[in-house]
Design a protein that fits this description.
134 residues; alpha+beta; Arc Repressor Mutant, subunit A; D-Maltodextrin-Binding Protein, domain 2; 2 domains; 13% strand
Amino acid sequence: MVMLNRVHLNGLRAVETVARLGSLSAAASELNVSASAVSQQVKRTEEQLGQALFERTASGLVLTEFGTVFTARLGAGFRELAQAVALADEASECTLVVSVAPAFASKWLLPRLSRHFARHPNVLLRIDASGRIA
């Protein structure tokens, strides 16, 4: 069994993109690299896996039977990763940064935070009480 850390993530990304888009050039465009770089990543990934994922034909790359199953699972994995990253994006969009003097933060603001979280549970709050002027 091939260990996951022996297979490069960029290669897996290249394989998934070629399978999803159907061509090296389309994958290269999405990944912002050359078609040659994508081709090399695909070949290296196949070597790391010890399995052919694509058949090379005159008209381009065609998924093998193993490649079809493999890229379906790989695509599901990348969709899960994209959803996880989207959570971070959503959290950063709902963060309120409040810059206040340290005394104001401790004496007035902090005692009232529970009210904020009760009314706005999806809005994260970051308090900057460094004393620097914003």
